[in-house]
Design goal:
Distance between the termini: 39 Å
Number of strands: 17
Radius of gyration: 22 Å
Strand order of the largest sheet: 7-8-9-10-11-12-13-14
CATH topology of the largest domain: TIM Barrel
Amino acid sequence: MDKKEHLSRKTFIRNTALGIAGIGAAPLLTGFQQVESTANKSKPMKLLKNVRLETGFEYDGDEVVATKTELFCIEIADGKITSIRKNDPKADAFDAKGMLMLPAFKDMHIHLDKTFYGGPWKIVKRRSGGIKGMIALEEEILPEMLKTSTYRAEKLIELLQSKGSSFARSHVNIEPTSKLQSLKNLQIALENKKAGFEAELVAFPQHGLYYTDSVPFMKEAAQTDIDFIGGLDPYSIDGSIEKPIDFTVQLALDHNKGIDIHLHESGQSGVDTIEYLIKKVLENPTLKGKTYLSHCFALSAIDAAKQEELAAKLAEAQVGIISTIPFGGRVMPIPTLYKHGVHVATGIDSVIDHWGIYGTGSVLDKASLMAQLYGFGNEFMLSRSLRLATDNVLPLDDQGKQQWPKQNDKANFVLVNSSCSAEAVARIPEIEHLIHAGNVVY
């Protein structure tokens, strides 16, 4: 199907029975704290003064010992940075008061469509039987969750904004219980928040492609303006690696989508799935740079030699890894992936839902956790760790040359009370302001 034939998100919403004025509006629920939408408070920013930008590294021999910064004026128009010039403290402009300007953060793995956030504290006891047990639980609770999913998605978006993220890749349930209703509800939330937030969506067969016959609903979802075709543990859920992966790859090719597959399997089936997906991408080069494995715990359960081998193969096929940076028994080989040039990103996955309750909403937390796990305790490596929160955008390159911001870059950035990127990663400051497309949204 040609890209022009895909249903636009606005058309998709308009054609649903919900509509913008339907149940997507904030419902009146006992126990909810009503919070004014950040989209309603956004306002354009045209000129900033006293903005701190990183300009280079300071060295002691070959070691980076500090980060140089200077104050600048930043001009914005039409959602872009139009000039970066010498600071003028007397300018009639928003005074950043020496705050550090960093790229806005990006949460690259979250489930905006099914969250308890925005409602009262709640824990759902996990079912036995692993993921299949959780599928059975979801089949029970999703009909009730759908009644408030638009409202709760908006509250979760507001939390992400307060933590510096103005972009997310959200997986959205596509299965026989909710069919496409979860997608429709989330589209309404995103439409309501579009002034200060962007998202790309993954059609996610959470209950298995064949285990619950989600295939017809996935085909329907692929005809909408989603961005990725998702998947889930093909061997353990659907009993085969090849059949679900082949379907996913073909659906992505037919509709010009990317691929993002949840892979929790940590045994041989996990390794086999990684290698089979790499094989399919190499056979279909248009999928290079558009294919991702989320979680991919199998990489943490193999020896160092096999990690090196798979990292090299992932890099060759340009298959990225989206890791939530697990710790304890599962420490991912992130440094090995970086060494081979694999695209690594992160997301909070959830803040509070029936899968987990420990999310903060901050991907900067994840970058800091990564730095701690791998001993990135010096100025250089801490500054490099920021890329996990920004999806690989850094103010300075590895040689200390300033590469962000530049004229005509999107005006998507945060202002924080930190002296440099390294301090921001180590200390995780509060987000003072989030600017998206030139608008102050937090």
